[in-house]
Write a structure and sequence with these properties.
The complex is a heterodimer of chains A (about 170) and B (about 400). With about 170 residues, chain A is α+β, with helices and mostly antiparallel strands. Chain A folds into two domains: about 1-30; about 30-165, no CATH class. Chain A has helices at about 5-30, 100-105, 130-140, and strands at about 30-40, 50-55, 80-85, 90-100, 110, 120, 145-150, 155-165, 165. In chain A, strand 1 (about 30-40) and strand 2 form a beta hairpin. Chain B is mainly α and about 400 residues long. The interface between A and B is large, with 40 and 39 residues.
Chain lengths: ~170, ~400
């Protein structure tokens, strides 16, 4: 193997890893945060590793979106959630609609195909049981919230999971 | 075979003198040392790599994000530099070990980034990144164990990609079209591994990796035939599988035609065995899954014994006594299991087990009687053990 090719071969994974880190940092650094209620803890996750699985309680009742174009994921359409918040940092209201409508008319747009990627949160091993209990209690009482940074294309990335407005890793 | 024990026995029997025994021992040791060394190196590298992944999976909280990722990149850079250094100095064993550690490290690092940034991307994306970025430096690997791990990694990545692809296609195409495409692509990729494993430059540059890839690919062919024959255990009401049978037929025929070019050095009857195995996969796909029929469990079991029989005959023609013994044992085991499957009442089961036991003992006796004979004949012929 030639030296130049060998150098590229051994450095390539590092470049890709570094790019992955930069991309994730930029996503969190540059995009607006939206807050969703996290609920419905799935106890099966303990068998699969140190993360918790939940679902997002999406509030789709905002009358402001009555004129939004209807969109159905199961019919193969490209759907987005039209996002709005009454106050910065307040709970997010959503309406499922076409991405064209959401990009043009909404405060924010989240592509619905990515929703399944928002339902897992990694937790440290040494406090896994304690954090799981904390989350179970908080989700029952509607005190658990997921903070998500969504970019202009509608791609989300989890920022943090809050319990009583404190990141769950620091909550006691 | 314990060569020292055998040499002592042969010397005691007067077949060889002390000088010959010493020369045989020296020859055998010179051949064995690198294999053991590479196996241990591969094992050590894998253990270390799994350790790194395990530490990552624990998602320890004490270290801040930037420090954690900085340490990860620093460790990666150290590994990359060490690998570059060992490869340029042609330190073959060390290069193998470092490539193995780096291979696991890259997977662990992708998982670490996913944990730190809470990325919920589908698993296939991480696996594709891992497999594609590691291919260039994994070409340095020479040992069998790491070669096997590499192929397993590629196959797992491919399985996850196919699952995601077919899941996605289900939204646009009918279930039948997706199923046909899935079967065709899976079969084509299996044959693809066989072809890659025998690529001339690959065989020349990485003979041990090529050998282990060949073994694994053909094992997958046998496993596919066995898996398809399980379809006979169910009633079939097929309205989905159609053109995939034709595509697989064309692919299998093409592969049979390629066999003499891929394996020019093996005996023609070994190639016949390989062709029969490929034909079995296609024939089973065509007969077990395509026609509406009732459940035929006995036929399924007999077919599995037949497939194992063809595989045993093929490896024997290739001169691999160890593989032949393993397959013979599997045949005996399958025959025994057949009796548990087929018979229901106490009397039937009892009679079945008596006849099954007798049959198994007969097989064991034949195996015991014929195996040393075959081993001796094969060792005299000196047939190489290439593609079993």
């Amino acid at each position: 193997m030639r030296r130049s090719f060998l150098a590229v071969a051994v450095v390539l994974p590092l470049i890709v890893l570094a790019l992955g880190m930069v991309r994730a940092e930029r996503h969190l650094g540059e995009n607006r945060r939206w807050i969703f209620e996290a609920t419905g803890y799935d106890p099966r996750d303990l068998l699969r590793g140190h993360y918790i699985i939940y679902r997002l309680a999406l509030d789709e009742t905002d009358p402001a979106f009555q004129d939004a174009e209807q969109c159905r994921d199961d019919s193969g359409d490209r759907c987005c959630l039209c996002l709005s918040a009454e106050t910065p940092g307040g709970p997010t209201k959503v309406q499922r609609t076409t991405c064209e409508f959401a990009y043009g008319r909404c405060e924010g747009a989240l592509q619905s195909q990515y929703l399944s990627e928002l339902q897992r949160y990694y937790i440290p091993e040494e406090r896994a049981a304690e954090i799981t209990r904390l989350f179970q209690d908080a989700s029952r009482e509607h005190r658990a919230q997921l903070v998500v940074a969504v970019d202009k294309s509608g791609r989300p990335q989890i920022d943090t999971l809050l319990v009583d407005d404190i990141p769950i890793e620091r909550a006691r | 075979m314990n060569i020292d024990k055998k040499l002592t026995q042969w010397r005691a029997a007067g077949h060889i003198d002390e000088t010959t025994a010493a020369r045989i021992a020296a020859f055998e040791q010179s051949g064995q040392r690198p294999i053991l060394l590479y196996a241990l190196g591969g094992l050590g590298a894998l253990t270390l790599g799994i350790g790194i992944i395990s530490v990552v999976a624990s998602n320890w909280q004490a270290i801040p994000r930037t420090t954690k990722l900085g340490m990860d990149l620093a460790l990666g850079l150290a590994l990359a530099l060490a690998l570059f250094r060992s490869a340029t100095r042609v330190q073959l064993w060390l290069t193998d070990v470092l490539a193995g550690i780096y291979y696991a490290f890259v997977l662990g690092s992708i998982a670490l980034i996913g944990q730190v940034y809470q990325l919920g991307s589908p698993q296939y994306q991480g696996l594709v990144t891992w497999s594609l970025t590691t291919i260039p430096f994994m070409l340095l690997v020479r040992g069998r164990l790491l070669g096997a791990v590499w192929l397993a990694g590629l196959a797992v990545t491919q399985a996850f990609c196919f699952a995601a692809l077919f899941d996605w296609l289900d939204d646009f195409w009918s279930q039948a079209t997706t199923l046909n495409l899935a079967i065709s692509l899976t079969f084509a990729s299996l044959l693809g591994y066989i072809v890659i494993a025998r690529a001339r430059s690959f065989v020349r540059a990485r003979p041990h990796v090529s050998e282990v890839w060949t073994r694994m690919s053909w094992t997958a062919v046998v496993a596919s035939a066995l898996a398809i024959s399980f379809a006979f255990y169910d009633e079939i009401d097929n309205d989905k599988l159609s053109w995939a049978v034709a595509v697989c037929g064309v692919l299998a025929a093409g592969m049979v035609a390629l066999l003499p070019r891929l394996y020019p050095e093996v005996a023609p009857r070994a190639r016949t065995g390989m062709a029969l195995l490929l034909a079995s996969v296609w024939l089973l796909l065509a007969t077990a899954t395509t026609f509406d029929r009732a459940a035929l469990p006995v036929l399924g079991a007999i077919v599995q014994v037949a497939v194992l029989g063809i595989a045993a005959w093929t490896v024997l023609a290739l001169g691999s006594v160890r593989s032949f013994n393993t397959l013979t044992a599997l045949i005996a085991l399958r025959v025994l299991v057949m009796y548990f499957e087929v018979f229901g009442s106490m009397l039937d089961t009892g009679l079945g087990m008596i006849s099954g036991g007798l049959l198994t003992l007969l097989l064991a006796w034949l195996w015991k009687r014929k195996s040393p004979e075959l081993a001796e004949r094969l060792s005299i012929e000196g047939t190489p053990d290439h593609a079993s």
